[in-house]
Amino acid sequence: MANKKAAVQDVVTPWEVTATSASGIDYDTLLKGKHYADCEKINDELIERIEDITGKPAHHFLRRGIVISHSMMNDILDLYQAGKPFYLYTGRGPSSESLHLGHLVPFQFTKWLQDTFDVPLVIQLTDDEKYLRKGISTPEEAVKLSRQNAKDIIAFGFDEKKTFIFSNFEYMCPPFYKNICRIEKLVTNGEVMNKFGIGKRDSIGKTSFPAIQAAPSFCSSFPEIFCGSKDIACLIPCALDQHIFFQVTREVAPFIIGKKPALIHATFLPALNGAKTKMSASDKNSAIFLTDREHEIEKKIQEVKVNDRVSSGMGPVYGKRENLESDISYQLAKFFFEDEMEWNEIKQDYETRRLSAMELKERLIIVLKKTVRKIQEERENVTDDIVTKFMSPRPLIYKYKNVM
Ligand code: TRP
């Protein structure tokens, strides 16, 4: 019975994303699920409000529904309008694999939030969780990966004066650990096992980890960074699969000194070999890596399946193109053609078949090569000293006038 049920439902957990349909995750159904009860879809009104109060155009991920939902984003905008501070919190599970285009999505959006709202950002590297879950043999090895991964993240162009990147293993200071324990005391084994799919045979480390991902949602975990402030609101940009961590966090927040964190969620970048799964480092054919050479990018895009109905000897196919959700080149174009006019033109021409699948791929290859090249060049410039600066606990530059 259980298997039957699993087969008809999309699976979205922090460790697995699998859709039942070739058009990918059914986000509307997902957001109606019980774990997302405290989330809302982003609508035009919210996007207009963001544009109005920041005076800047909304990021294309917002306009195209790639950043799809939120919790309490209006509260954050109220604070911003009132000149009160908030900070951003996001993270990455450091692994030996290089980043791929799928990782780029939440980080690009986070960078836009930092630039647009001019706010501090903390980035958690969960080397402890990687050590607990993956075949990494020692904590020391996991810390090394954190520093390597920090280089990739810095290459996205975060502002050094406003960004603190930390390894859980290295940063674990008393206030952070006290918040972790406050959370641990409020969450039961049963709840974690159920919500995170942890079994009796899993280690106790896995059961307690959610409290470690939750604690940075409270600014009191970072005394040096926020100069001892205890009440700065937190906004977490993340992919939808991470929401479960923060649903638990939001439940316990009222019992801890701290506000419920607000969230803003991104959808998943589909895998090159089909939208049933997201781009993933463990399936090499599914992803374009930020270390890929130009010819590899070109080859991978050329090999993406074209899901056009082919004319069966009865002349060309007319009419609007269908099933664009499962059309991977089109989906990638939606994520990576930043310019609104260019994207609108491509979208229209492709839908009406003025642009062929081959032509779309050629244009996509140009954009992806450019995107990857830019990050590769930036990464070359990230020295060990720069990593040390980003990872040193220090006050982040911010206007704290309304909190202290
Ligand atoms: N669990 C995330 C991953 O494995 C990393 C992470 C930690 C994170 N804290 C976060 C992601 C906050 C988004 C927001 O990739």
What does this structure look like?
With 404 residues, this protein is α/β, with parallel strands linked by helices. The chain has one domain (10-404): Rossmann fold, CATH 3.40.50. 46% of the residues lie in helices and 12% in strands. It contains 18 helices and eleven strands. It has helices spanning 2-8, 27-32, 44-54, 60-63, 73-81, 101-117, 127-133, 139-154, 168-171, 174-186, 189-196, 204-214, 243-252, 294-302, 328-336, 340-351, 357-380, 384-390, and strands at 11-13, 16-18, 40-41, 67-71, 86-92, 121-125, 163-167, 233-239, 262-266, 270-271, 274-278. The strands form three sheets. It has a seven-stranded mixed sheet. Strands 1-2 form a two-stranded antiparallel sheet. Strand 10 (270-271) and strand 11 form a beta hairpin. Helix 7 crosses helix 8 and helix 14 (294-302) runs antiparallel to helix 17. It is globular, with a radius of gyration of 22 Å. Mean pLDDT is 92; it is low at 1-6. Bound molecules: tryptophan. Tryptophan binds at residues 14, 89-93, 124, 126, 213, 236, 238, 242.
Question: Which structural class is indicated by helix and strand composition?
Answer: alpha/beta
Text of the CATH class: Alpha Beta
Q: Which molecules are bound besides the chains?
A: tryptophan
Query: Number of helical segments?
Result: 18
The CATH architecture classification is: 3-Layer(aba) Sandwich
Oligomer state of the chains in this structure: single chain
Return the string of H and E elements: HEEHEHHEHEHEHHEHHHHEHEEEHHHHH
